[in-house]
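Second attempt. The first submission of Dihydropteroate synthase had a stray character pasted in from the spreadsheet, which I only caught after the job came back as garbage. Lesson logged: always re-copy from the clean sequence file. Corrected sequence (573 aa) follows.
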Amino acid sequence: MANDSKTWRCGKYELSFDRPRIMGVLNVTPDSFSDGGEHFDPDAAIEYGLTMLDAGADIIDVGGESTRPGFTPVNPDEEARRVLPVVRALAKEGAIVSIDTRHVAVAKAAVRCGASIVNDVTGFTDPKMVEFVKTSTCGVIVMHAGEVAAPTRTHATVQLDTSAAAFVAEKAREAAAEAAREAEKPARRRRGKLLGEPKPEAKLPGGVVQPSLPFGEPEPATEPASEQETPAAEQAAAAETVAPAPEVASEPNDHLAAMMRRSARREEAYVPTSQLRRFTLPDSAPIMRRVMGFLSDQARALIHAGVSRDRICIDPGPGFGKTANEDIVIQRETAKMASLGYPLMCAVSRKRFVGAVSGVTEAAERDAATFGVCLGAIQAGANIVRVHDAAGFAQFLNGYWAVAKPQPRRAFVAVGSNLGHRCDNIRAARDMIAEIPLTCVSNSSKIYESEPAYEMRQDAFANAVIEIKTELAPLVLLDELMKIEAELGRDRSKKAKANGPRTIDLDLLWMDGETHGGKKLRLPHPLIGERDFVLVPLEDLMHDPARFFRYNGVEVKEPEDRVGHIVGELGRM
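This time the job returned cleanly.
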């Protein structure tokens, strides 16, 4: 199940999976399969990313190259131009940003701009990408992309003939075929190996074998190929060469593009057969051997190269070279993939197979069916769901989790007042917090008097911190706190000063296992470390709060450098 002990280290962030995590899809492209062009403008993309965060997304996955079936590859310069402003702006707002790219140059630039995760659809089969991530601290997503079906064998119609002449003729044909194979053997040798043998695999530093791309053979070139084969290293360098034009046409050696074109044709084509299938789905064993074998091999290769295990997430890559039947087989085996021990991604949002099982033709209308598939994956052990409709899925997940998974978590709420009867306001707020659904007050600090902070021309404040246990999601809890502020007379209109006098002020400071960014809520609260009127009351509730928050990545200032210093006690709650 999703509430397991796995953690995922992504740069300065650490994600726990006591709840499933939501990754919102942000395509900064003109041609993505379900939302192409909607967020192509950087400002629109940034605004939409912040909206997803405020609606419940934990991670924003930013991509600048569509990899839908039949896609046109984009050169790294153009891809970087699309995504970097978006990555930089979202990271500045405290978001955990994932960069969805197969180009090492784009991954490097995005991480420098604040991205915490590299999501490589080619599964880190490029040694240059491995070399980069091993020198960084970002999280990595290893995805499987490639055909998983065994080669189809065609069978000719057999007509039995039991005559002696037929028997002799058959033996003669077999002997002739064997002789022809023996004669061809010397001619089939090239560079000391037979054609059809596995291609030599690249080696990473330390002698670690880098598995080959799982895409199958690329489509034949439109122009005659050179007699001398191009070395793999030169092909990789050519793929990263920056073309003067913003976009480049699909190249014959682009394995991913060729595989996705074949995949689209295979979905559309009707292949007649003389035999009806006996089972609704293909055998899962060979499919899962390919998918799980690739994912575990790549994860081990990354570990041997120097990437720590707790930075690795795996993704079976639904829709990438797979038919609807194959995707269903893979999703039904989610528990087996989760047993590999890495955080597991469910990235099925609006995919073709979701449309096939739901009967929904338009990709943008497949969200409800997507939620159903994601729920099945979560129940089987998936930890992260990658969805287009982050707001809708957050509602769906909050409803399901509240009923299915009892999970009280500790949180701290700061309470302040400098208008009216200050201490009475704080006690009233505490009593109302205790009435929030699925929430209880477990402890309270004493009430302290503090100097004003930020806006000095106002009366002194009364401050306290309340420790609670809650089963609500952070954004849902925040909405409940805002309702209490409004009921107690807090003025949050534009005419009110941001840090001016207030009847009551409620700040969600910290919640167990939660990291969040965005305009609406930041967790941990970004100003905890400089507020004396928060840190001193916290000393009533925990040992050494400064050390606690430093461990959680918060910069905590020395007492003399803080704002809103405590000047006295006003009594107990």
